[in-house]
Amino acid sequence: MTTERAGERRQFGHRARLALTPAQVRGIDDQAHAARTMWNLLHDWWTMLPKDKRSLAAADAAIRQARKDLDWLAVLPAQAAQAVLKTYFQAWKNCWDSRAYAPNFKSRIRCVMSVDIPQGRDLNIVRVHRRWGMATIPKVGRVRFRWTKDLPVGKRANKENRITGARLVKDALGWHIGFRVQTLEPTPEPHQGTEVGIDAGVNLPLALSDGNHFDHGRPARLPDATADRDKWLNADEKAKLLRLEQRAAHRKSFRKPGERTSNRLRRTYDQIRQLRATATRRAVDWQHKTTTEIADQYGTVVVEQLTITNMVKSARGTVAEPGKNVAQKAGLNRSIAQEAWGRTVTMLTYKLARRGGTLVKVPAPGTSLRCSACGFTTPGSREDQATFVCKNTDCGFEAHADWNAARNILHLYRIGHVVAVPAAGRCSRQARKRVKPATAR
């Protein structure tokens, strides 16, 4: 008699840094460029053909023939080429279902270089020792990667917990490998933690309704035109970044319009991107650690429904009606963008779900102006970015402005003012208008 394990199959990704030799870097670079070119050729072939001749089988036959005729396309493994076709066809399905824009060409400069390895069994992952592991990349060979998380390999792998594939991605810091791991997670019990409201801000990144808060470990400051754009870098790294930006501006001044970028300027741009990527990685690491701590402690987390794209709009105005305090608004926009509130909410959503908790969104208007003690909204109570003093003569409540807003957010949830969260992956209304009807496909 067999018993079925109660749980849910989940797919999650784990990203690790690769340690490649120069020859391996060139090999993976060639594969990435071939994958990008194959996407562009496939897009050209698909859009030029009549609609009645477009099919997955015809596209597959065209890719197989192209790999035979062009040697530089054959650098890409056959399974990786099939993954390009599958991804391209899924992009059109997402467009037809109003989940995304129509696929387009991938430029050499702006697109992310990547190669897909759809079969997990081809990787042959082995843990060498505590810090490093090894995997097999088709047409490249054995490569080393940083072992930072236990993976279901060897005797630990089975039908329920296994690696189903991987993807090689290149950023400013080099090549990384992202493993696709399928695991069977037991159905979590309802979280017994308390309810908490969270207010996301710039002066104080995360303020909780119970009085706790999470900051970056640095003195808080008001957002202005001179706001620290690289707060995740230390003093030496900031000085280096400033020197590189000045050097890039100086070298760019000698380039004529339409002239090719010099190799020296490209190297300077690469160094700037490396520092930016380092800052981004540190910010994401802080978000992961913070959201994990919140998900472990609280059962219900309440946040605001923020339209961040509207919050970071420029105040420049027009020539006829120029805006006011444009520099200050630009500094505030940069600070809001660096905090990445949307990414924090995304992390909280799936981490709470895995622990049996829930994330709820409430309307944002008025949460920072209402007094959480008496419930009145009195003009002038929000004295500055961090101070809230209720001007109601019968109240006089004083608190940090973000903590007061967090209490109001929790209050909205308790009285039932909850926002219905749309399904994940939906695109904007403008994108849906551009999609052709089913009869025109």
Task: Pick out its properties.
single chain; 441 residues; alpha+beta; 5-stranded mixed sheet; 10 helices; globular
Average per-residue pLDDT, rounded, comes to 85
- Tell me the fraction of residues in β-strands, as a range: 15-25%
- Write out the strand line-up for the largest beta sheet, numbering strands in chain order: 2-6-7-1-5-4-3
Radius of gyration: 26 Å
Shape: globular
The helix fraction, in percent, is: 25-40%
Unreliably modeled segments = 219-227, 423-441
Largest sheet: 7 strands, antiparallel
**H/I helix tally:** 10
The rounded distance between the terminal residues' Cα atoms is 51 Å
Specify the structural class.
alpha+beta
What is the count of β-strands? Answer: 14
Order of helices and strands: EHHHEEEEEEEEEHHEHHHEEEHH
Please tell me about this protein's structure.
A seven-stranded antiparallel β-sheet has the order 2-6-7-1-5-4-3. Strands 10-9-8-11-12 form a five-stranded mixed β-sheet, sandwiched between helices. A two-stranded antiparallel ribbon has the order 13-14. The protein has 441 residues and is α+β, with helices and mostly antiparallel strands. The two termini are 51 Å apart.
Summarize the SSE layout with pairings.
Layout: E1 8-19, H1 22-48, H2 56-69, H3 78-96, E2 114-117, E3 126-127, E4 132-137, E5 141-146, E6 162-171, E7 174-185, E8 194-200, E9 206-208, E10 213-214, H4 235-252, H5 263-297, E11 298-305, H6 308-311, H7 326-339, H8 341-354, E12 358-363, E13 387-389, E14 398-400, H9 401-414, H10 429-434
Parallel strand pairs: 8-11, 11-12
Antiparallel strand pairs: 1-5, 1-7, 2-6, 3-4, 4-5, 6-7, 8-9, 9-10, 13-14
Helix pairs in contact: 1-3, 2-3, 4-5, 5-8
